[in-house]
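Tokens as discussed.
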């Protein structure tokens, strides 16, 4: 009987684990051709000056398997739309003032730092220099400020999924991004819905939202200030495996906001490359890119605390 129960528990565990993860998608000609067909044919805002975007794709912590898929997707969307020129970066030198100034916007492609410090600039310096701990800490703060100044002076920032953790323990940076990562329950099917189906940034979903398998992110720090214009949300009572009691009925999972003269777009969707086979999500990403470079004008006023 004990052996039977043990077998059942083992099977339950295996099924639970498999339910939380999707099979890794191979990047081959077939997949690239599929994404090429699904990507938007034209940008929402046409006849604009081509913008230069840095796609920073280095993670020092959790390494999302979708990082290379996102790179290929963004290259395809840039070429197909004709309004972007993307440059892929992995080195911390990209955050020097002179290098940031080459770009109109930066996309952080799941640039997860390691824990518990969750400081990407500190991690990158530790990996690539022989500086002392004090020198690394000092220089990391300079890189963080360089990046914040770049956005405040008119640059754009788009954060994909786990990139919200980049400077997760920095309250000033949390206010820049709109929040910090707290935790996520297991992967599961989530129906994210539009906050305002008439908003230009969510027109791709046609009022139907998006249903896919993803990690349901919960947030902390500056998130509670709601200093952003929310775009998509999930219903808390539909999420399984919550670790903390949440008073809110909904959690916003995508938003836009101003930061000084610059613009920020965060999208928690998506953790899995399978989600990239939703043309609505690809249009949402492209519209987000046009927003952060200043081409797509829309209401980005913060809703603030109730």
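Sequence:
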């Amino acid at each position: 009987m004990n052996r039977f129960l043990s077998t059942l528990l083992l099977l339950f565990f295996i099924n639970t684990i498999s339910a939380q993860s999707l099979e890794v998608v191979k990047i081959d000609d077939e997949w690239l051709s599929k994404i090429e067909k699904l990507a938007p044919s034209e940008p929402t805002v046409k006849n604009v000056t081509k913008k230069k975007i840095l796609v920073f794709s280095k993670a020092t912590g959790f390494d999302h398997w979708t990082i290379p898929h996102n790179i290929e997707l963004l290259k395809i969307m840039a070429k197909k739309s004709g309004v972007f020129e993307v440059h892929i970066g992995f080195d911390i030198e990209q955050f020097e003032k002179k290098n940031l100034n080459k770009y109109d916007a930066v996309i952080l492609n799941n640039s997860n730092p390691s824990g518990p410090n969750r400081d990407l600039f500190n991690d990158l310096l530790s990996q690539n220099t022989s500086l002392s701990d004090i020198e690394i800490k000092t220089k990391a703060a300079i890189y963080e400020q360089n990046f914040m100044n770049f956005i405040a002076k008119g640059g754009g920032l788009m954060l994909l999924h786990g990139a919200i953790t980049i400077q997760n323990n920095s309250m000033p940076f949390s206010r820049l991004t709109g929040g910090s990562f707290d935790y996520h329950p297991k992967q599961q099917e989530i129906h994210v819905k539009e906050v305002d189906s008439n908003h230009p940034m969510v027109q791709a979903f046609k009022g139907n939202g998006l249903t896919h398998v993803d990690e349901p992110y919960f947030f902390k720090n500056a998130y509670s200030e709601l200093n952003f214009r929310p775009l998509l949300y999930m219903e808390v009572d539909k999420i399984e495996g919550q670790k903390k009691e949440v008073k809110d009925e909904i959690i916003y999972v995508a938003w836009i906001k101003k930061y000084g003269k610059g613009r920020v777009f965060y999208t928690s969707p998506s953790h899995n490359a399978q989600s990239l086979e939703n043309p609505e999500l690809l249009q949402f990403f492209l519209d987000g890119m046009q927003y952060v470079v200043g081409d797509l004008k829309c209401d980005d006023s913060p809703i603030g605390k109730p």
